[in-house]
Structure formats: structure tokens, C-alpha cells
Amino acid sequence: MPRSEIAIRVCLMPAVVFALLASPLPQAAAQSFRDNLTSWSQTTSSQPSSGQTEPDANDRGNPPSLLAPLKPHREDEPYDPITARQRLRWFITNTIGPAHLAGGAVTSAFGTAFDRPKEYGPGWAGFGDRFGMRLTGVVTGNAIEGGVGALWGEDPRYFRVPDQPFGARVKNVMKQTFTARRRDGSFAPAYARFIAEPGNNFLSNAWRPASEANTHDALLRTGEGFAGRMASNAFQEFWPDIERRLLHRNR
Fold first, then answer.
1. Which of 227, 236, 241 minimizes the C-alpha distance to 177?
2. I need a surface site. Which of 58, 84, 136, 236 has the fewest CB within 10 A?
3. Closest by alpha carbon to 133, among 216, 141, 15?
4. Is residue 155 in some structural domain?
């Protein structure tokens, strides 16, 4: 695929996703679905409204920038359902955040070093093609998980358990790779993620080079996607502790 076409896809996808996630339609559909299933008026009134302040707003009550990463959350704290704005922040920061772009640069560099796939070739041009291709997959996957999950209140955030023993924390990292919180705070299978990972990898076969546009490679990429999610969970679980110890040692 020509590099110009890849660039167009990369530019257009975020615009479409932004419209999807910013639209009130997913929330409205979910609200209608809940109203048909339950007569609890209190449940509906307890959901954050557009005039309420986000749980992680600053001291002046102003919502953080859309480019600001969501603050770390603990599982033992009172649960606040994710808001539409937080969901959009999750999508943006998990797509073009520094850590995620750096990860894409590393994997693209490895692909360039080993010249895989060969259609992209070596050098900076090949690196750019690989980086752009990876970004289209990240955008598509995050869009599906964030947008579809909004219909039933699936929360894509990770919730730490810093006071638990090491083994329990590792189990939490693994558990939340395949589960996510719902509006009532309970954990359930992460169905939107189960749709997003294979969905984005099979969909990307439509614009990937022929050597990797097949079922076998799409399944491999799906497995790598879940492995990457587990690694991301582990980073969010343990990095705050490592960072705190490093800062304490330098004082």
C-alpha cells in the first residue's frame, strides 16, 4: 500500500472515532436499554450528568485536558463509573500518548531491522510505513473498545491493588486483561475488548500487505494484543511503586 494512502487512513480514523465517542447516541442507547430492564429511578439519577464535575477534576472544578492521562485508580476505592469525557480521554491518551507512541516506535524499529513485512522495505521509509500501519490498528481497536463498551457501561480503565501481596497483584494484572468493570462496580468479561482485538486485526487485513493479510497472522496479532494489554496492566500496577522508590532514593 502506498505510504500516502496509509497516512490518509491514519488521519481520517481518529476524526471518525472522535465523532463516535463524543456523540450522545451510545449513552442514550444504553440509557434506553436500562430503562426497559429496570424501574429503578434512583439508578438512573445517580449517573453523572453533563453538569456534574468529573471525579478527577482539579481543585477549581475544571475538567482536565483531553490530552491528560487518567489518574491511577485503586480497586478498593469507592467506584465512580467512567464518564463520557473520561472515556474520550482514555481513547486519546491510549492512542497517541507518549508511552504508546514510544512502544510503537520500538516495535516498528524491530520490524524494520528484520525487514518484516518485506513489502515495506528497509530504512526510514519502511519504518514510517510500519509505524503508520500499527497506529491504524491501535486507533481502530481503541475505538471499538471505547465506543462499543459505552453501550453497556464497560470501563476500560485498570484498577490497582497496591496493598495486596505480590502474587495477588500479578493475578489482578491477569484478571483485568480479560475483565472490566461495569456501572455497579462489579467485574465481568470484557466483551468490548473481545470484539475489539480480533475485530481490528481482521479488519486491518483489508489494507495490510499481502504477506500478513491472512487469518493466521490476524490471530497472532490478536494474541499479541492481549499480551500487550497484560503488559500495560503490569506497568500501571507496579510502576507507581517503582517511581516512588526511585524518587525516595534520590532525595
1. 227
2. 58
3. 141
4. yes
> What count of residues does the chain have?
251
3 state DSSP class of 23: coil
Identify the pLDDT of residue 4. 42
Domain that holds residue 140: 3-20+81-250
User: 35 by DSSP, 3-state: which?
Assistant: helix
Q: What is the pTM of this model?
A: 0.76
User: What value does the CA radius of gyration of the chain take, rounded to a whole number of Å?
Assistant: 20
Confidence tier at 100 by pLDDT (50, 70, 90): confident
Is 165 a domain residue?
Answer: yes
Q: How many domains does the structure of the chain reveal?
A: 1
Name which residue leads in pLDDT, 116 or 162: 162
Position 31 in a domain: no
For the four alpha carbons of 165, 171, 176 and 182, in that order, the dihedral sign comes to negative
pLDDT value for 168: 97
Cell numbers representing residue 187 in the block: 467485574
In-domain check, residue 34: no
pLDDT at 3: 46
Q: Where are the beta strands (DSSP E) in the chain?
A: 73-74, 159-160, 179-181, 187-189
Picking from 13, 38, 56, 55, the residue whose alpha carbon sits closest to that of residue 144 is 13
180, β-bridge pairs = 188
Under DSSP, is residue 162 helix (H, G, I), strand (E, B) or coil? Answer: coil
pLDDT higher than 80, residue 240: yes
